[in-house]
Design goal:
7 helices, alpha+beta, DUF3990, PARP, globular
């Protein structure tokens, strides 16, 4: 009788194919704390995510989608902001979104084995960051500062020069010392070319946060509480 082929684990720390387990998080101040690891399959993929959200309604949940191998490295070694791509909305850094589906779909397009890391923050977390936190205007349909910053990071930086007409230098000076920058995701179809004065960048409804400094990354890492892992090749 032929032996059954062993199924590959979803997440490197968990031998179970379904359900959840706990894994101690290195570097956490409270060593008794651990992250919950959820292995998602067809039957539980909606219920586990919904149940987790419902049980944490009093918190701000932020999500980071990445390959399972990258997730393993983050859990083991922490967040490295220098590994982030540079030609992105808010420049190089570690990005999280306030929308689970957005983070999952972002990595799902390029990988069959992927994980969504969940950071659970107190409602006052951003306020507590003081001057190290910058929040773009989320209420206004048009935020010129947000538009200039996204255009600069996505387009003008790629040409290796600063468009003098954009008058963005004061904004860059203001943001260069920030550890956390929060604002809308830019529309995916933004062309990578210098922005003209009449070009408007559309906002995706998803809110994202870019962690820009290692100091901010160390603070943020302490709030990693869960990992939802997928393996679409099974």
């Amino acid at each position: 009788m032929a032996s059954k082929k062993k199924k590959k684990e979803y997440f490197p720390f968990n031998g179970a194919i379904n359900g959840k387990s706990k894994f101690p998080l290195p570097g956490r101040d409270d060593r008794s704390e651990s992250i919950e690891i959820f292995n998602i399959d067809v039957e539980n993929k909606k219920s586990l995510v919904s149940e987790y959200k419902d049980s944490n309604k009093g918190y701000i949940l932020c999500y980071h989608g990445t390959t399972s191998e990258n997730a393993k490295a983050i859990v083991n070694s922490g967040i490295n902001v220098t590994k982030g791509k540079s030609k992105t909305d808010f420049g190089q850094g570690f990005y999280v979104a306030e929308n689970f589906d957005y983070s999952r779909d972002y990595v799902k397009q390029s990988s069959k084995e992927y994980t969504v890391l969940v950071f659970k923050l107190n409602q006052t977390f951003w306020i507590e960051q003081g001057n190290s936190f910058y929040d773009f205007d989320l209420k206004e349909d048009v935020d010129k500062n947000w538009e200039q910053y996204v255009a600069y990071n996505r387009c003008i930086v790629t040409s290796g020069r600063l468009n003098k007409k954009s008058n963005i230098k004061p904004l860059l000076s203001q943001l260069e010392c920030k550890s956390f920058i929060r604002g809308h995701v830019g529309a995916k179809n933004l062309e990578r070319r210098p922005r003209t004065s009449n070009q408007t960048i559309a906002k995706d409804p998803t809110i994202q946060v870019c962690i820009k400094t290692n100091e901010g990354a160390q603070r943020f890492f302490r709030f990693l509480y869960a990992a939802f892992s997928y393996n679409d090749s099974l």
